[in-house]
Specification:
The protein is mainly α and 154 residues long. Helices cover 85% and strands 0% of the residues. The protein starts with 8 loop residues before the first helix and ends with a helix.
Length: 154
């Protein structure tokens, strides 16, 4: 069985929760950028010109790409460390919601080409999927801290 060296064990054990808290903050920033894109799209005149200068669409794409890669690898990494440390995965709400979130963000990202072609259904689906993702992410933060507390207590 694979074992994490003792010196790296604390780092590996707590890397996933720390990464996920950072990603939750980045997710909220991506939400802000998405709202600014919607404002830009519906604005007129000088306000629209001013909002365009913010380049919110470019920033949203970059932040979304970063979120996608780190959420997928963070999910897989958290599962790997759990398996290495315990010889099994703990199948429960935290794991299942995390896997669901990974599917949601991948599906949401896959809608980008359709949104770029002006497909309204893709834009609304993207918004709904990401709304669910943000809600699940908040819940995951709470349940993740409960797991961290159990690890610290043992």
């Amino acid at each position: 069985m694979l074992e994490i060296p003792a010196a790296l064990k604390p780092v590996m054990t707590f890397f996933h929760p720390l990464l996920m808290w950072v990603l939750l903050a980045v997710t909220l920033y991506a939400l802000y950028l998405g709202i600014q894109i919607r404002r830009t799209r519906s604005a007129e005149g000088d306000l629209k010109k001013e909002l365009i200068k913010g380049k919110f669409n470019l920033k949203h794409h970059v932040v979304g790409s970063i979120l996608l890669v780190f959420m997928v690898t963070g999910t897989l990494g958290g599962m790997a460390v759990t398996y290495i440390n315990n010889g099994k995965l703990f199948v429960g709400p935290h794991l299942l919601a995390g896997l669901g979130m990974t599917g949601l963000i991948a599906t949401s990202a896959s809608l980008v080409p359709f949104m770029q072609k002006g497909q309204g259904w893709a834009r609304y689906t993207h918004i709904v999927l990401n709304g669910v993702l943000v809600g699940l992410f908040g819940w995951q933060a709470v349940t993740g801290m409960q797991i961290v507390q159990r690890i610290l207590n043992s």
